[in-house]
Every structure is written in structure tokens, then in C-alpha cells.
## 1
Amino acid sequence: MPDIQLSLADARALAEQCLKINGLDDANAAATAANMVAAERDGCVSHGLFRLPGYVTSLRAGKFDANASPTIEQLAPGVIRVDAGAGLAPLAVTKTLEALAPLARTQGIAAAAIVRVFHMAAMWPDVEPLAEQGLAALAMTASASFVAAAGGKKPFFGTNPMAFAWPRDGEPPMVFDQAVSVMARGEVMIAARDGHQLPEGVGLDSDGNPTTNPQAVLDDGVLLPFGGYKGSAIALMVDLLAAGLIGQPFSPEIRRAANFDGGPESGGMLIIALDPDRFGDAEGWRQHAETFFAEMLAQEGVRLPGQRRFANRARTTKEGIRLPAALHAKIVELSGHS
Ligand code: NDP
């Protein structure tokens, strides 16, 4: 069956309608649909509309609060704690960023701990809006164990993604957003769905043997951290900052509480925003960084992280997105249309 072509506005309306009809309130549905369609728009399909059926399963089961309204408490001059109310991340993140940006400007640096939150989204939307306002930002979240600690053969860390954004003059921000696993679990799920093999080195099967079969990794197997012990150390840091620091569950605790219904699981998030104007080089930092980027990009074959996404964004904003027909039919069915 050919793919279905949709404008971004139509994709967003379809996702929002589907979430609302399945019980999510207006504010959460708008934020969650916008987040998923932004991922789809930027070519991050593993966190795009592919995830919508999972959200609906969780919604129908009452796994998270469909009417959650995040609340914000200031714990220290530069620290806020956002209680997502056992609701979805996109609305909590929207409210967090609104509070965090002015705080980073007055304090130079500010951090937000987002707690009691259900997360299954890409992380770049948690930092890119801050960089668009001239701030540097770092965000991370702990997730259910699927990744081996270096030397291990069983899941311990989550795929624990981390995103970093840096503001630029007249250019989109530099943004990287990456899981600690060699490949994000969503990509492994898509490979399984589409009948593709994985590259070597992505995961182990349930006996701890290397495998290129995505289903063997998903069925009681394990993903490997990127860069061996180095990725494992980053995963450890993410768990300590997005769980230990803020009183939220570590990856193995998230896994034990998870029901793996395809929807988001509960965890914590940490977002840190820095105002480069407040670190002693207010006049020079922008140009200095631009010179650095220019030197980096002068090498053939080098690009900045985020450039693929921005190129996709420019294209899909004009052309719309293409959804696999089976996924489109599933979303229409879940939306109650015949
Ligand atoms: P990728 O490996 O696809 O990309 C990681 C980063 O590297 C991106 O910023 C990408 O930029 C950049 N990059 C890729 N190739 C190059 C290159 N040749 N030169 C320079 N930069 C490059 O991401 P992952 O598979 O690790 O993660 C995918 C998504 O899954 C992320 O959005 C992550 O947040 C999400 N995720 C969410 C989880 C959750 O629990 N919420 C759990 C795990 C993952 P570009 O995009 O421009 O290619």
C-alpha cells in the first residue's frame, strides 16, 4: 500500500483528535500532538506518530493522568521543581521552559527537575526552544532498563537520552539529541516492524550473544551502550542526574514498574539552561563559537548535529509528511472514524 501524504497541520489535527477522543484533555492533547508531529516533521519517525497507538493504549487503561496540570515550585534561586501530576511530558516541558528561560537570565544558570512525568518523546524539543531564545541548554531523562552496563549482558540502564542545544546567530541552533544505546529502541522497533536486520554491535539476544535480529533484542535481549564503557558512563550520569538527584526512579526501578504497553513510562527529567551572556564573554561568545563551527565545517564530510533534522523540517513544511498506510489506518481507527 502506498504511503499517505499529510500536511503538518492535518497530521497535527489527526493526532490531537485521536488523543482527545481517547480521553486526553485539550491542553495535553495539543502539546502531545505538537510534539509527535514535530518529531515526524523533522524525520525522527521513531518518536513521531508511530508512538500514537501506544499512547492510546495507555490512555484507555488510565496509566497516566489524562487531565494532569503541571505545577511549579521554586526550591532555590536557580532551581525549580515541576510536578507533572503523573501526566505526559510535552505539557510539563512547555510549562517548564516558560519558567526556566527567565530564571536562567536572572541567575545565569537555572535547572528544572520534572517529576512524576510519563516520557516517551524525543528530547530536542526540550532544549531547542531555549536556544532559540539565546540560551544554551541540556536535558536528560532516565528510562526503563534496556541497555547493558559496560561488561554486562542484561538490561540495566535505560536508553537515557540527552540533548544539548547552543544558540546561533541567524542560523538554527546547534542541537544534538541522542540515546546512550548504539541505536534508539524505537529504531529497533521500526526495524522489527519493517523486517530489517540491525547493524552489527547494536544488541545481544537473551543468551547474551550478539545478534542482528531486532526481535531477539526486543524479546528479553539487550541493547549495547555506544562507545562501550564511555556510553555506559554517560548512562550512569543521566540516571544519577535525572533520577538520583531529583528523587525519581532509576532505570531498573522504572523497568520494574513498567507495563510495556507501548505507551510512556514514568520517570524523571532534568533540564539545565545557561545564559552565555552571564559567563564573562557577553560581547564575544557568539562570534567565537561561530568561528569554531566554521573551522569544524570546513572539513569535508563534517556537519553539525541537528542539520539533518532542519533539512527535513524545511522539506516537510512545504511537502508534508508521509505515513505508512497501515499506521494511518490504525490512527484513523483509533480516532473512531470508519
Ligand atoms: P541518532 O543516533 O539518530 O542521532 C544522535 C545525534 O547525532 C542527533 O543529534 C543527530 O543529528 C546527530 N548525528 C547523526 N549523524 C551525524 C553526523 N554524521 N554528523 C553529526 N551529527 C550527527 O539518535 P538516537 O537514535 O540516539 O536517538 C533518537 C531519538 O530517540 C532521540 O530524539 C532521543 O531523544 C529519542 N529517545 C527518547 C527516549 C525517551 O525515553 N524519551 C529514549 C531513547 C531515545 P540529526 O538529527 O541532525 O541527524
## 2
Amino acid sequence: MSRLEIDTARLPVLLNELRLPAICRMWADLAARSDKEGWPAARFLSALAELEVSERARRRIERHLAEARLPPGKTLDNFDFTAVPMLSKAHLMALASGDTWLENGSNLLLFGPPGCGKTHASAALGRALIENGYRVLFMRTTDLVQRLQAARQTLQLESALAKLDRFDLLMLDDLTYVTKDQAETSVLFELIAARYERRSLLITANTPFGEWSRLFPDPAMTVAAIDRLVHHATIFEMNVESYRRRTALGRKNNATRHKSEAPAAPP
Ligand code: ADP
Ligand code: MG
């Protein structure tokens, strides 16, 4: 057995030990090509390194997409910006690049009636941010509050909040659906205070601040929470009619038009 054969026989073990699965899978093909085309050794080595790095980036994005629990199928591409004139595509695309707002822990607040596209726009933004290397978690606010309440009961609230720090952006969908008894434990306030000026929050809500008194145990806390949320925030007021309703009406009108355009039935 030649020296070369002995070395390559051990390669899978070595590459596995070094945690280089992409190189392990691809080196043989690339080596054959490199031999055939007479690549310098440095080119071969850097091609392998590039391969592993891009595989890693792909796997990381896949992991971050899975952990984010975004509603599926909602992207910037399939969001109809003409339906929401106050939400500019350019602005959302700029936010999707992350930039300074996530580094500064600034917030994004989306207000509007049911069906106006708050959840869709948020999920689409989240997906784009993950593709740009950020970590995001999407949750219904009531679910998150429930989780934090459970943590508080076992004296683990602080560590539960600290765990959420790994997300550059925490998306709280439907904030105003928090119930009165959930509000009493004030974990929502603790969350807002803990992330203030450090980690970003995205909040969607059907009702603007005037009706938030239900969400917190007392008026002072409501004011303090809103104050922290808006101090560094972009606010989108999406006051448009429900997209669901509009598309349903569109279909109905279309159907009626088609019916009236159809040739008259023979007598
Ligand atoms: P909200 O969260 O404001 O209640 P959603 O984001 O859930 O509204 O939107 C309701 C439905 O309408 C979803 O299926 C969503 O994908 C769709 N939708 C809403 N706005 C748009 C839009 N501008 N373009 C495309 N689909 C939209
Ligand atoms: Mg929604």
C-alpha cells in the first residue's frame, strides 16, 4: 500500500475529528478535479476552506430559521406593498439589513386592525434578518407571557429573560391579546425593562397605546413600559382595511362580473 493511500484512508476520521463535514464529503471530488486541472496546492486548500465556511453559514441560517418559529410562507416578495401605502418597501428592506437599529436595541412597533398584514410583515422581516445573519424569535405574546410566568413561579424569571438575550430581535405578536390575569404578574414589564436599550423588540398590536392599560398591573407601570418602548422606536401605523376581507371581496366581485359577462343562457 502506498503512503498516499494510507493517508487518505485516515482522512474521514481526521476530518470528523476536526468537525469538517463539508470537506469530508467533498474533498475526493475536488481532489480529482484539482489533479486533473493541475491546481496549485494553495488553490485546492482554499477551495476546501471556502466550501466548509459556506456550508457552515448555510447550516447556521437553517438553524436560526428553525429556532425563530416564524409563520411559514410569509416573505417580503409575497407581501403586496401597494395594499399598505404607509409601509414603504424601501424602509422595510433597510430594516431587514439589520444595521444599527438592532445593535442599538431600538424597537419596531406595528399597529393596525386585524388582517392589515402586521404578522405577515413581521414574519417577512424576521426571515430577511435571519438571512442577513441575525437571530430572531417570533412568539404570540400570550404564549411568551405564559412561559415567563411559569419561570417566575419557579424563581427562574431572570434566567429565562437572560436566555432571550441571544435573540437580536424578539417579536411579540398581538401584544394586546394579553389577558388581565396575565397582566397582573407584570412579567411583560420585566421583559420590556430587561431589553431596554440593549436588545430589540418588535411588537404588533391591534390597538395603539391609549388602550394598553389592561396589559400592566397599574397605570404607572403602563406609562413606564410605553416610555421605554417608544424611546428608540420606529412606529408603523397600518390603518388599512383587512387584506383577507379585501381579497375575499375581490374574489366575490370577480365572480359576479364573470357571471354577468357570461353569455346568456339559451331560452
Ligand atoms: P394581522 O396580523 O395584521 O392581523 P396578517 O398579517 O395575519 O394580519 O394578514 C392576514 C392575511 O392576509 C395573511 O394571510 C397575510 O399573508 C395576508 N396579507 C395581509 N396583508 C398582506 C399584503 N399586504 N400582501 C399580501 N398578503 C397580505
Ligand atoms: Mg396577526
